[in-house]
Amino acid sequence: MQWIRKIHKWASLVVGMQFLLWLGSGLYFNLMDHHKVGGHTYRSHAHHEPGDIDVTALVEPKAVLQRNPKSVVITQIELLGQPYYLLTHKLGLYRDFENDYSLVDAYSGERVDIDASFATRLARQSYNGPGAVDSVTLLQPPLEDFPKQKNATWRVNFADDIDTSVYIEAGSGRVVGHSDAHKRLADIFFMLHFMDYGNEGSFNNIQIILFAFITLWLALTGLIWTVDLAFRGQYKVAWLSATIPVKIFDQQRRPLWEVELSSATNILDGLAEHGIALPSTCGGGGTCGRCKVLINPSTEPTSADHEQFSVDELEQGFRLACQHFSTDVQDMTLFDVTDAKKVTLELTNSRFVSSNIKELRFKVIGNRLTYKAGAFVRFFIPHGHGDVRPKNIPHQYAGNWEGVPDEQFERHACLRSYSLASDSHTSEELVFAIKYQRAPEPGVPAGVGSSYLCNMEPGQRVDAMGPFEDFYAEPDYSGPMILIGAGSGMAPLRSIILERLRVMKSTQPINFYFGARTEEDLLYQQEFFALSRKFSNFHFTPVLSRASDDWLGATGYAQQVLFANSTTSDLLAAKYFICGPAGMMDDAMNQLRELGVEAKDLYFDSFA
């Protein structure tokens, strides 16, 4: 199934991008001026009176054909008020198709060539604008402005405000058409709308044929994936669910508990509801591979199971708890149960620290929690209705939320993990810096956990489990530390820095590189500058990717500034603590590995 999911992902990206192009070009077609985009702004549509033709003086068509025996068709036409015979030697299905013409003076019977002077006079007759002739060029197909035209054509350019060009067919003197700035802009949108990226002037092109096959693949892989999920019981209806007793054993097969798990909840979340915490940093997405259990009887593995376990492990019954339900199991063995406990937290304060991130402070109802700096807590998000737009947005950040509708969406119960931005030694409060995840597009809900927590009011309570200590600095490490963060990845790094400086009174070199888009996105900026003034071993380097003109600090990305301002020996001597967006983390760790930094010196907290 893994390759089915990959095909579906990339096919959806291609189809989605083209749908956006269709939407944009379709909107343009509804708003455009159809007269202008046809190239008709300066086109003369006046009827030209026929010239004073002496019919008795015309050469007989039969005589003309005798001189040109290979002609297929002879037609009398008029150009600039004079009669001509148009001889067609090769006839295409349409006049834009490849044709072979010659022109004969109807009075003399002599062949006439449409040269630059003749083409210019024909173009002038078709043009009623203010411009003078700027240039005359004979073009061979294909023509950029008229890709369907397959015959040699004169282009007569006029020096006017919209760069008008009149095209005259070199063989027949026919006006192929007018093109100008309006038409050329419209041609771009037609190209995008009909996927005519080869400029063939037709929607029956190889690009749209390939797109049809990609769309077919998207539909087929989506259907296969849906059927596969259905057969594996991944679609659960809460009101049809049942509670199923499951026996729990430890690694020595000693019985621990017998719990009743809902068939509508995966094993990871079901165990958490009973206060049994399995490690998980991916939020149940099946990517971290930490919530492993041994299931009996062995059930069909998911694609996530195949990625995390070997063939032998799968045959033994190893599975990811987040990918299976109680209907799949009679008993299971747990390997890595944490000491985390279920607690109730009460919100004491909530404030925006940037346009997208809120600082939330909670007090623990009951006994105080102790934890290593860098730990995270797993929140139980209840079923209800979430808000697409946060409440009580400060005035200075209101502009960043313009256009975001004040709507609600249905929120299903789930678990969400957030890192602590505090340390347990200097404060009894649990502090979090949580990014309010916006809806990526209309019809898709905003962040389920962030919209709930960030819209809580002081005094409200929420159940949680933790803390989980997966990302921390060893207490006895006294060498150089380099921390790289961005966005809400600030939280666990702030916790580690506060513990090292305020609690441990560490004198080791600590360098913190934090990336943000603008200065208003620099969380706790003044606090870190104050720490750097108080502790000589601590250095804070904020980096902006979209800095204003008056910003005097570093610009670009945090990891780039680190590498540009450090020697290789300094980089190899340190341990690294990295947290933030996946792109930043991947780039930083890949470069560090290429430099020779060992895996044991790389600590990271992934939000994936």
TrEMBL record:
CDD domains: fer2 (cd00207). One of its GO terms (molecular function) is oxidoreductase activity. SUPFAM superfamilies: 2Fe-2S ferredoxin-like (SSF54292), Ferredoxin reductase-like, C-terminal NADP-linked domain (SSF52343), Riboflavin synthase domain-like (SSF63380). The chain crosses the membrane at residues 12-31, 208-231. Residues 244-340 form the 2Fe-2S ferredoxin-type domain. Pfam families: Fer2, NAD_binding_1. Keywords: FAD, Flavoprotein, Membrane, Transmembrane, Transmembrane helix, Ubiquinone. PROSITE patterns: 2FE2S_FER_2, FAD_FR. Residues 340-474 form the FAD-binding FR-type domain. This is Na+-transporting NADH:ubiquinone oxidoreductase subunit F.
